Structures are given as structure tokens and as C-alpha cells.
Amino acid sequence: MNERLLSLLQSMKAESWDHVLVTDPKHVYYLTGFASDPHERFLGLLLSTENDPVLIVPALDREAAEAASTVKYIVTHQDTDNPYLLLQQQIQGTAGTLAVEKDQLSVTRYEQLQQHVKAERVEDVGNVLRGLRIQKSAEEVSIIKNAVRLVEDVLTQGLAQVKVGVTEIELVAELEYLMKKLGADSPSFATMVLSGPNTALPHGVPGTRRIEAGDLLMFDLGVYAGGYASDITRTFAVGELKPEAVNIYKTVLAANLAGIQAVKPGVTYGSIDRAARKVIDDAGYGAAFVHRLGHGLGMDVHEYPSVHGLNEETLQPGAVFTIEPGIYLPGVGGVRIEDDVLVTDDGVEVLTSFPKELTIIG
């Protein structure tokens, strides 16, 4: 077994679980090295305290699984097969205590599981898997850094297309073209370009609005590369801004820097949120900062942990997450500045390096 499987097996024994069934394709990849999008087909990794791990894959993925997976006992199913019968055959009798990913299984799949696998008790393995993933290895950090480098190259080249009269959606198309051209696998989420009054919408949808002189212009984008995500937000000025827009930019930048400065091992995620939020509160814009400070980043663009003021979990070296304060004022516009950061043994490494000073473009 690889180290991740061994860690999971140790957790199984500590929790007195007899079997674990992993069905999230990203977790199957994390634990075995086999990456797949099975669509509606069943994909599962079955772990047992008594037997070797079993990887259950669609028959059309057998060759890829055999080439990539560190788990060598692979069972396949055709589209006309019932994969839950395969599970039943592998467990052979009662499953005892079975741990599953409760937030990943649909009701339909859970009912199928109950029908074919008899368990005395069903537990949730989700917290254990999230705990394993939070501490990134040196290899994972290197892959994330590459995803960050790619998205910053995309943003650098995409900014050359900004001019008065271009639409938000035209810039989105250019950015997503550049992602593929420069080597990314895909966007890590729906690319966001918002201008003028639309920047006051934290999760606005890019449309046909044309950029005007005096606009705030917000870019929120990320890529997947090598199975890991990046996520960055920068806000620019198109020509000269009104004084209040300049003021909220300076305030958000100060909050971003305060949040980064607060990062070190042993402090709580809540304390980081509070450090950044205090800057915005003190400037009189507290009610306009309407979301958490950040989120975990890795195989998912939004993953554990959530960086908000009530999270009293402590930071450990190897954690990667975002710091992205924002102020959103209807009638004025909005500013968000987002960085990706890594907790180190003695502090923080900021993975994003794109300049943050207020920049006039277009």
C-alpha cells in the first residue's frame, strides 16, 4: 500500500471500521493514483481491515486503471452489470461497520448499497479523508505552484485584450482560450470577469456589458493542472476611478495583507478572518464584506477548511488556502483581492505573485 492508504487503514483501525468504501473519483485518485471521470458509472475503492484493497472500475477503464493504480486488485463491470453485486461478492457476508462518503453518495446509490451490502452500522469517512488532504505534500505543493504560475500567465496575457468597449464575456472567452493554449487542463471554476456596477456582485455572472472608462474591473479565475487547482482574484481600474472606489481598493488591499500576516502554525483559521475583517470594519465597510475570508485549495478549488471567523481549528504546516477579502457597494462597485497561501513550518508562503497595487489598464 502507499502511504495514504496506510494512513487511512490506521484510521479505520482506530475507528473500529471493518470496511471503507470510497466513491468520490478525486479521492480514488488521491488514494490510488488512478484518475477517472466515470460519469454515471460506478467507481469505488473498497478497503478492508482483513483483505487487500479492491478497485472497482467500469470495464472501459480497465487498461488505464491497471497502468496508473497502486492498487493492483482491480474488478471491472460492464454497463449491463450491477456493480453493487460486485461489492457484495468482495465483502462476502456482513460488512460489520462500513464507512462511506456520506456527502458524496446520492440517495439512490445509498439505497442500492443498503440493498446489496449488509452492514451492522454505517459511518462517515469524510472527515478522515479531509484530514488527510489538508496537509499537502511537497509534491502536491509543487503541482499547485505550477497551476498558480499558469493562471498568472493567463491573466497577464488576457489583460492585453482589455479596452473600452470590449464585453465581459469576450474577455472570459479570451482567458479560457489562453488556459488551454498555455497548458492548463481546464478552468477550475467558471471564469469571472465583471465590470463597473457588476463588480458589486460577489458572484456575478459575466455578460454583454461593455467596459467603460472609470470602471472597476474584476477578474476571478483559476485552472486545473496536474489534478490540482489555482484560484486568484485581482481588481483593476479602467482609467481614473472615483475617490470612494480608490478608498475601498486601498482598504481591501490592507485587509488582504493583514490576513496574510496573521498566518502561522498554531493560530486558528478564525483569527485570520478576524484580522482581515477588522481592517474593513475599522474603515466603516464591515457590512459590505459579506463572505468568509477564504477556503481550502487543492484537488478541489473549494475544499476543507473554511476560513471564517468561527473556525477555531488551528493551522498546521502544509495547509493551502485562499485569502480573499472584498468590499461590495451597489452604485460604486466592488473590489476583491485573492491570494493562495501555504502554511510553512514557521509562517506563510504566498504562492500567488501577481502584483496587487492599484493598476490602471485599458
Describe the 3D structure:
With 362 residues, this protein is an alpha+beta fold. The chain contains 10 helices and 20 strands. The protein has helices at residues 3-15, 25-32, 62-68, 83-91, 107-116, 126-134, 138-158, 168-181, 243-261, 269-282; strands at residues 19-22, 44-48, 54-58, 74-77, 97-100, 121-124, 186-187, 192-195, 215-221, 223-225, 228-229, 232-238, 294-296, 303-307, 320-323, 326-329, 333-336, 339-343, 348-350, 360-361. The strands form 6 sheets. Strands 4-3-2-1-5-6 form a 6-stranded mixed β-sheet, with helices on both faces. A 4-stranded mixed β-sheet has the order 8-9-12-20. The longest helix is centred in the middle third of the chain and has 21 residues, at 138-158. The protein starts with a helix and ends with a strand.
Number of strands: 20
- Computed over alpha carbons, the radius of gyration is 23 Å
Major sheet size, sense and barrel closure: 6 strands, mixed
Strand content: 15-25%
Structural class, by secondary structure, is: alpha+beta
The helix/strand series, from N terminus to C terminus, equals: HEHEEHEHEHEHHHEEEEEEHHEEEEEEEE
Mean pLDDT: 97
What is the CA-CA span between the terminal residues?
54 Å
